[in-house]
Amino acid sequence: MATGRTHRPATRSRGIPEATVARLPLYLRALTALSERSVPTVSSEELAAAAGVNSAKLRKDFSYLGSYGTRGVGYDVEYLVYQISRELGLTQDWPVVIVGIGNLGAALANYGGFASRGFRVAALIDADPAMAGKPVAGIPVQHTDDLEKIIQDNGVSIGVIATPAGAAQQVCDRLVAAGVTSILNFAPTVLNVPEGVDVRKVDLSIELQILAFHEQRKAGEEAAADGALPGAAAAAAARKAAADQGPDGDVPAVMPA
Amino acid sequence: MATGRTHRPATRSRGIPEATVARLPLYLRALTALSERSVPTVSSEELAAAAGVNSAKLRKDFSYLGSYGTRGVGYDVEYLVYQISRELGLTQDWPVVIVGIGNLGAALANYGGFASRGFRVAALIDADPAMAGKPVAGIPVQHTDDLEKIIQDNGVSIGVIATPAGAAQQVCDRLVAAGVTSILNFAPTVLNVPEGVDVRKVDLSIELQILAFHEQRKAGEEAAADGALPGAAAAAAARKAAADQGPDGDVPAVMPA
DNA sequence: AAATGTGAAATTATTCACAGCT
DNA sequence: AGCTGTGAATAATTTCACATTT
Lengths: 257, 257
Prior knowledge:
Order of helices and strands of chain A: HEHHEEHEHHEEEHEHEEHH
Oligomer: homodimer
Strand order of the largest sheet of chain A: 6-7-5-4-8-9-10
Domain CoA-binding (chains A, B): 89-190
CATH topology of the largest domain in chain A: Rossmann fold
Organism (chains A, B): Streptomyces anandii
Number of strands of chain A: 10
DNA-binding region (chains A, B): 26-65
Shape of chain A: globular
Distance between the termini of chain A: 39 Å
CATH architecture of the largest domain in chain A: 3-Layer(aba) Sandwich
Protein name (chains A, B): Redox-sensing transcriptional repressor Rex
Subcellular location (chains A, B): Cytoplasm
CATH class of the largest domain in chain A: Alpha Beta
Structural class of chain A: alpha/beta
């Protein structure tokens, strides 16, 4: 995509790598903390440490935005905050709707970090008529019937789906039809969207499963190394032993699913 | 890390790529759905569609686990469910503690997908003495003072942090000292952990910021293409125009932070 | 005929290491 | 003297395309 046609002046070429985009919010958060402590400048080394990445990566990331540092000195904190904010589109206001006001939806509505940085919860939507009118986080819940009108009246382009998995695709379709082009999906299901619509997903269960994979791996290595097991590791090793039912065992009746 | 020493038989070599591990839960979910519908076999094409990836990637991913398919036929659903579950370590029970029982912590405790697939909420922990003893999702909340004992008594190796950002590092340190080696962090802060401890983070604000970046990009392209704007896109374009304050503007007083 | 499994190519991301600026 | 910015080197990931197996 966007194959470099070898004729544009190298300056500020389009296309920041996706991996870099994903880290910009991290840098921004670290910078904001420095700004609040009135720190005027910061080196790539310091900022990288605060953001939990290595400094070469950080410098490379910033190089895609432009040359915002000063050699021998570092980066001006305020200036960088502004440049990254602008790059991320946070200098404008983003009205957001949350659909599905259960436990999670309510938690999201109450989440402070949501409101900061340009995002504004414009409306809460739920399918339960009993919820309608009830305020959550100070915002009255509206009924799904009015979804399209709410989207359009508020010029919403970002939707958050916090419904049960079964309702997610349907809600997604309606959001997209009404003009939403970015979706943050908390429902544990794959959403099908047309070209041009971005979906990002947050899935607790997936994150835990990834951790379990590494945890299992660690348990295996411990067993091999066979040192004294600190803390709760002994119990973990015991679990491991109990679960190991021979290599490549044949298919059992049914799995935990 | 774990540099291949070039002497092990290629069969089932160690080290599944991280990107593959991150997709296994996705495949597992799709397979579980098929299993519930009693679908006996599935092709890489079909399964890939259900999981939202392309089929070559899926086949490559599975090739790291072993040869579990049948050429000309596809994959046996039950068998694959089992193999992936085993690979992810889901054939064993993982007791988990959630620390910080605010809105989000409560939502997590109530989250059904949590309990499925081998994860069990062993305890809820909060720093507020007023919460102690109160049941959330049927589990009584315990006080932070007892954190170490709770971890050890339950053999917990996975901890979920849902505290405010300010408390997260301290909670993390105590969890790790007590024997936890995997942490799922919902607090918007970078956690420092010793070697051997895995941390995964979930950050709503970061996800929204990434969406905003792409959203902004789209608005720019629309303005360039200048077609009829469907739905709420017109309003979005207007926002864009309002926010564009010339290229490379100088530093403003303060940013939204 | 159909679909897997996989080398090889292409792409993307990270890290190194140092020239160049302040 | 210190620290950025970036080519070049390396590593990881994705995609292609097809030989191989059922």
